[in-house]
Design goal:
Blueprint lengths: L3 H9 L8 E4 L7 H16 L6 E5 L1 E2 L4 E2 L2 E2 L6 H8 E2 L4 E6 L8 E8 L7 E2 L11 E5 L2 E5 L10 H9 L5 H14 L7 E5 L3 E12 L2 E11 L4 E5 L4 E6 L3 E12 L2 E14 L5 E7 L8 H20 L5 H7 L2 H10 L5 H13 L5 H28 L1
Parallel strand pairs: 1-2
Antiparallel strand pairs: 2-8, 3-4, 5-8, 6-9, 7-8, 7-15, 10-11, 12-13, 13-14, 14-15, 16-17, 17-18, 18-19
Helix pairs in contact: 6-8, 6-9, 8-9, 8-10
Length: 389
């Protein structure tokens, strides 16, 4: 098995980005421009690596090669974006890699682009990139052409050497387990389990009992062999089930309007360990947005807008309103889910004002709300894509 943290260090030790790896401080998949640039990088690396993996490392300050980290990214539908826009799409994996010196909520994103042995092109126009465009790497630069492109194998030996030098060993695994337990206090109940005598999985979370159900919050799950963070949740409630072959996580979100509230299942993720030293991660989207009384929602929406206006104009806020700020993102989320006009726009505009507050809870809730909406949007796009096939 490859220790992904060590692999990233080996990639960063290269003198610069080259034709088999690139690094970015962040990527954005929330706009056409962001999606187009991401597709360009994947296409270019795929076309420049005929017989070997290529890599895109996210969360690196480019100038000084400093590991800054990014938020945990848990969208299992990212392959669908590749399949929708690229002809001969390569298989990719996005993994969240924990680093000891990063804050607990930060990781380094590692995108592995597997060799495709075919020329990958844009099959439809996106942003300023036209249909039929071919991207490829020349040194550290991504180039493009609309003409004929010939695949060449040039990086197989050097990439094989880098991957071999990142092989896992017993010491790295034990160090990873000890570090996980050290990083999580007793209130998070850190545990480990060995699956199939090959995989070491660690997890931790605060326990919370609701009726007969046991939930966990602030859940952190890592596959120690590869230093991959498989799951991370700040606010959502999580149910965990374990058998001898699988680790199953069902994620819930708590939504409330006045006295009407419940835990709503968001997504189920099954990590299944095989005998051949491999694992499968399968996600099932479960969320059905609850529908609330429209009159009460409009009253809530107007209250949110009034409080948001005070934040934006730096108008004095009462102690009661200070407490209400932390629920602003979740309340706007309820409005978006119930199709209140402009609720999403107002939620987006709130981000910089929440980010600059000393108390970061409201901003954390904002990021969680955006994450839920991203999952809903991507699930909708996947359903529409299936209908069109």
């Amino acid at each position: 098995m490859i220790n992904k943290r060590l692999l990233i260090k080996n990639l960063l030790a290269q003198t610069d980005e080259n034709s088999f790896y690139d690094k970015k401080q962040k990527i954005s998949l929330d706009s056409k421009e962001g999606k187009a640039k991401f597709l360009k990088h994947v296409c270019a690396l795929s076309n420049s690596n005929l017989d070997n993996n290529s890599y895109l490392v996210i969360g690196i300050e480019d100038e000084f090669n400093k590991i800054k980290g990014v938020d945990f990214f848990d969208d299992s539908k990212i392959q669908n974006l590749i399949n929708s826009y690229l002809e001969n799409p390569p298989k990719i994996n996005y993994e969240n890699i924990a680093f000891p010196k990063l804050p607990r909520h930060k990781v380094v994103g590692l995108i592995t682009i597997h060799p495709n042995n075919k020329v990958t092109t844009l099959k439809k126009t996106i942003w300023k990139y036209v249909k039929g465009l071919v991207f490829y790497r020349r040194g550290s630069n991504s180039m493009s052409t609309l003409g004929k492109f010939e695949l060449k194998s040039t990086n197989k030996e050097i990439v094989a050497s880098i991957e071999k030098n990142a092989s896992n060993n017993i010491q790295l695994t034990l160090d990873g387990v000890f570090h996980f337990f050290k990083r999580h206090s007793k209130e998070y109940h850190p545990k480990y389990k060995v699956f199939n005598e090959q995989f070491v999985l660690c997890w931790a979370g605060k326990q919370k009992k609701v009726g007969e159900k046991l939930f966990y919050s602030r859940v952190d799950i890592e596959l120690i062999n590869e230093q991959v963070r498989l799951f991370y949740s700040v606010l959502d409630e999580v149910k965990i089930e374990i058998n001898h072959r699988s680790f199953i996580i069902t994620e819930y979100i708590y939504l409330q309007l006045k006295n009407v509230f419940d835990y709503y299942p968001l997504e189920k993720t099954i990590i299944h360990f095989k005998d051949n030293g491999k694992l499968d991660i399968v996600s099932e989207f479960l969320f059905n947005p609850p529908q609330f009384d429209k009159a009460e929602l409009l009253h809530l929406y107007n209250s949110c807008n009034a409080l948001s206006t005070k934040l934006k104009k730096e108008i004095s806020i009462s102690k009661k309103e200070q407490k209400e700020i932390k629920d602003l993102p979740t309340n706007y989320l309820l409005c978006v889910l119930n199709k209140i006009p402009n609720a999403l726009k107002n939620l987006d505009e709130l981000a910089p004002y929440l980010k600059n507050r000393n108390n970061k809870l409201a901003y954390i809730k904002y990021k969680e709300a955006i994450r839920v909406l991203r999952k809903i949007r991507n699930q909708h796009e996947e359903n529409e894509h299936r209908k069109s096939i």
